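Revision sheet: structure tokens.
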Amino acid sequence: MMSVLLLRSTQANSSPDKYQQVFSSASINIESTSPIGFEFFDLDKLYESIQKPGDFSGIIFSSPRTVQAVKLCIEQYSSLEEWSSSGLQVAWGRHPAFSVGTSTSSEAENVGFQTVGADCGNAENLVQVIFEKIQPNEPPLLFPCGTLRRDVIPKSLESRGVKFTPCIVYKTCPEPRLKENLEGYIKHHGRRPDAVVFFSPSGVQFSKTVLKELQIEPSNKCKFFAIGLTTEKAMLEHGLTVSGVAAKPNPESLLECITDTSVT
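Predicted:
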């Protein structure tokens, strides 16, 4: 059976993992391990904004981590039960939650947001969706983000005069147990994966050395894939060979991408 390793964080909620479902139905073994960790901060400032839905015309979720930040601030300064009963969830539900990718959208919907743009594929396409729904004269969009955020969304919004309020609430750092986790994967399966999928530029940066040390690389019959064009660019910049790029950041497109390359 083909084995595929996803370099991504596992879902923070109890919903069935869509990647696991799609790949298992195709008789492909799939596992996830994260090459990156996250440290959250200034959640009190984010919570202040979350309490004022009337001050915003919507919210932007550029990754599952931004959704997690919102969920954490609610849990830390209130509770999910109070969030649901106080009317805040209903009020935010009247606003669009612009989300990149199905994983991010799924996380946001589980907190009660009404997402838009799940299938847009990347930040470049998401801003076009935003322009269709938000006008320059409307209140700002709330934009929780990390220290390594890309400039695509901010610069695009600024170019069209669409207002937004950034709120930096987490930083990205290497996962200290990555090598240990990958060694455990090899020991458990008795071999290296047939394919590795990178899910973010940070994931590329923090995993490439460990992968090389463990000989998980194309020269050892392992193919590398990217979840999107931004990640592919990072892989190429780090000298990695890219066998394919998913047309959209979802399980179905990734499965098609991998199987089309005839990995065996």
